[in-house]
Amino acid sequence: MRRKRYFCVANITYASLDKTYRRILEVIGATVNGKPTNAGILFFSDRPQDFIPNAYVRLVVFRGEDMLEYMDRRDFSGPLWKIVEDFENYMMQYMARMGAIVSFRRIEKYEYPLEALREALVNALTHRNYFDPGDVRVFICPFKIVFINPGSFPPGVSPDKPTHKPRNPILSQYMYDMGFMEKYGVGIIRMKQLCAASRIKLTYSLDSFETRLTFSRIVATLDDIERKIMDLIAEESLSSSQLASRLGVSKDTVLRRINRLIQLDLVKRIGYGKSTRYIANL
Length: 282
What we know:
Layout: H1 2-9, H2 14-17, H3 21-27, E1 31-32, E2 35-36, H4 38-44, E3 57-62, E4 70-76, H5 80-94, E5 97-102, E6 105-110, H6 114-127, E7 136-141, E8 144-150, H7 169-177, H8 186-197, E9 201-206, E10 210-216, H9 224-232, H10 240-247, H11 251-263, E11 267-270, E12 277-280
Parallel strand pairs: 3-7
Antiparallel strand pairs: 1-2, 3-4, 5-6, 7-8, 8-10, 9-10, 11-12
Helix pairs in contact: 5-6, 6-8, 10-11
């Protein structure tokens, strides 16, 4: 069933490769000399965790930002493509939906961009170090979602330089064929674009042991004036005087809010003195 679904989605036909399953599996790197590869087990086995125990995702929903008390916890297992689909279905049920008016039409969107969350999980499963005994973890808090992935980026690759240099190239190809991920390093760029459009702060922290990706819904904690400031400087840089004029408040009020937004790493200061302007750091 797993193999048939992959061949269908990836537009692979028996005629284009060979007429036997064994030959097809050899060609796509799922087997070598008749024996399954790790990539083949992870993607096509019904229970890959029987052979690679750490190949699952642990999700925990916490009541507060301190992560002391949890409300729900799930372990997602099975082949990697099923983990992705099960995770996405869970998030669609869990996340709140918000209405917005676009071109005089009401549309609904999730509080976090679903496509960006899926990309984050796919990247974690595809690029992680499977020799590390740790598992992929997803922590959901009231104002943030954190993905923790065993291992760091491959040498020469970073969030600022997302070149296509996969640690597990066969898995990367499978995910690409299934339409779950982009190649050539554009996945991180796409996540940043989606988060910027949804007023979500995306941050990476990494060391030699793990990679941590955080989606922060800090905007939800802002007051009305702070939200209006963020809206005004989302596309253009403005001075404090311009902001005060557009908002109808004092310059001191604007500066107090701006200083807090800078501390939250939501706003960048550009220039000095009278030429100082501000722009959203999203």
